[in-house]
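Postdoc handover notes: sequence design on the structure in folder B. Input tokens:
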């Protein structure tokens, strides 16, 4: 037998052996050691424990490589306990339900405290149409990226004289450029085509003018992404009339809160929109729009809160932790349940309980 014939026979044996030992890949493990990751869990107030428990059940059913460190935190506390902050700093990731924020009075928002203490400078809310969920507008897929640490939320207020209160809006070049860079980098990495800066620089010429200057400066470094600007009041009108024109939107703090909730309402409601608050070192994932919403007491009693927003937020968290296949499985299951239209909570036109939605999502996991 010649050398060429021997080589052919050898190659054939190797190929046959490879066929015998080849195994199907069930999931793509996380790069590195693949060890489970710790996640700080804050159930919060109102519907918070219901929807966070929904996430716990789905994660367990998926055998997701994470484990939760749960802490009891409520909106009427003076501060977030230091042990909770230490846990988030250690794990670098947190999942939370809504924390009730008292209206008026001297108690500040724990949601805002978390963002400041952990420097979670970017709020990201993804507002998009879900197949099978009827809405007035179609082809909506908007990402609202909001500066999260200054602006009107700086908390610098005082009473000058009885009956006159001064509230300071703080804008800095550093924070404005930082959020603009985050928005353009997000657009670049996610194949988005356009970034729109939302402002009120026609009136607040110095504060919002600085924000616009920062956005324009950063835009020059991303020539492949279209950049435009829109005044916030016109923005709201355009959102409710032609939302499909928007792609990525970058905003100062207060405007982003209003824009994200408006966009969420247009795309299907705050109960289905995921979101997260991200910094250089830490990330807190929660319901994207109306994150402080803790639901009505009747909804809590009947256990009919919508868990979809937090389930999709937890999928964002899994992707952040570099578990993309688990994130895909979860998102696919949730979208199937919405598309089927059998299990829907009251806000989506149904009468299902939280647990019924959870059971349906688990049944649709591949």
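Designed sequence:
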């Amino acid at each position: 037998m010649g050398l060429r014939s021997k080589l052919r026979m050898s190659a054939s044996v190797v190929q046959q052996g490879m066929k015998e030992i080849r195994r199907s890949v069930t999931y793509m493990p996380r790069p590195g050691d693949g060890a489970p990751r710790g996640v700080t869990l804050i159930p919060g107030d109102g519907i918070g424990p219901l929807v966070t428990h929904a996430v716990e059940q789905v994660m367990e059913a998926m055998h997701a490589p994470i484990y939760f460190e749960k802490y009891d935190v409520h909106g009427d506390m003076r501060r977030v306990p230091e042990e909770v902050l230490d846990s988030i700093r250690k794990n670098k990731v947190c999942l939370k339900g809504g924390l009730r924020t008292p209206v008026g009075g001297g108690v500040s928002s724990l949601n805002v405290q978390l963002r400041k203490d952990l420097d979670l400078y970017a709020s990201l809310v993804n507002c998009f149409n879900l197949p099978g969920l009827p809405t007035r507008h179609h082809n909506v897929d908007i990402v609202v990226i909001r500066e999260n640490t200054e602006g009107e939320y700086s908390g610098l207020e005082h009473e000058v004289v009885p009956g006159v209160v001064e509230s300071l809006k703080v804008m800095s070049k550093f924070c404005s450029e930082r959020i603009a860079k985050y928005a353009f980098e997000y657009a670049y990495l996610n194949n988005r085509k356009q970034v729109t800066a939302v402002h009120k620089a026609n009136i607040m010429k110095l504060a919002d003018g600085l924000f616009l200057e920062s956005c324009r400066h950063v835009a020059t470094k991303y020539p492949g992404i279209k950049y435009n600007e829109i005044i916030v009041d016109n923005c709201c009108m355009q959102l409710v009339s032609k939302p499909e024109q928007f792609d990525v939107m970058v905003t100062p703090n207060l405007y982003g809160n209003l824009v994200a909730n408006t966009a969420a309402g247009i795309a299907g409601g705050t109960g289905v929109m995921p979101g997260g608050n991200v910094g250089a070192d830490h990330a807190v994932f929660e319901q994207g729009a109306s994150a402080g919403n803790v639901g009505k007491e009747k909804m809590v009693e009947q256990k009919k809160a919508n868990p979809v927003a937090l389930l999709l937020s937890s999928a964002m968290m899994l992707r952040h932790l570099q578990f993309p296949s688990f994130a895909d499985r979860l998102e696919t299951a949730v979208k199937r349940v919405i598309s089927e239209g059998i299990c829907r909570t009251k806000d989506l036109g149904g009468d299902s309980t939280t647990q019924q939605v959870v059971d349906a999502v688990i049944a649709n996991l591949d």
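Context for whoever picks this up: The CA atoms of residues 76 and 341 lie 37 Å apart. Don't rerun without checking with the PI first.
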